[in-house]
Amino acid sequence: MPPRHLPLLALALALAACGTKADKAAAEAPKAEASKTAPTGNPPDASGTKAGAAETSPLPPTAGTKLAAYVGKYPFDKVDGVAWNDHVLVKAGIVASVKDAAVLKAITTTEGPSAPIEMKDGKVMAWACEAHNCGSHQWSVLIDPRTGATDVCYFDDSADNARSRWFLASGKEEKREGNCQ
Question: Which of 108, 126, 170, 174 is at a distance of 20 to 30 A from 89, taking alpha carbons?
Answer without folding.
Answer: 174
